[in-house]
Design a protein that fits this description.
Elements: H1 3-18, E1 20-23, E2 34-44, E3 52-62, E4 75-77, H2 86-95, E5 103-108, E6 112-114, H3 118-131, E7 137-142, H4 147-172
Parallel strand pairs: 2-7, 4-5
Antiparallel strand pairs: 1-7, 2-3, 3-5, 3-6
Amino acid sequence: MNDYDFHREQNFHHLWKQVEIVRSVPYSLFTFGASDLEYYLVTDSEESDGLVEVRRGCVKVNRPLIISPHNAPPEFRNFFESDQFGGMIDFLMARSAAFSNLKLENTQQQPELLSDSIEEVVSRLNKRLDTEEEDRVAILTAPHGLGGAAVFKYTVSRIMDSAPGNIQELRERGFLPE
């Protein structure tokens, strides 16, 4: 590993640890068709005024076939605020994940600004989701500017967690050998 790759990997791990999936969901992605990954994203505000931004969003995962890493590259739309994190996708794809044929699109609502801390906002969101018995909405946290990384981490996590069940379903339907 050369010096550039070492620093790139270090940078990736540093960013990855700064974003959290505070509340995940227990469901797998559909093997065939589309899946929606709904979430709340809680981040520090761009200003140093102590405000917290909360955005409701949804990642639509289309064609989640996780079997052929050589067919076509995945498409990621609307994940990062700037192009500086594009290398994060390439880094992860080159090292561990083969998400061929995936089309992932992230949509978010306008942020709501709150004067509470991230921890207080997360606590209120958890209580609200528990009261509503909502178990299909995740809660993500990130420092300002890393919201896209949190959404990306959550999406990758759901895809990887779903892979064994998706592969088993493909086998059961005769698309893969036993």
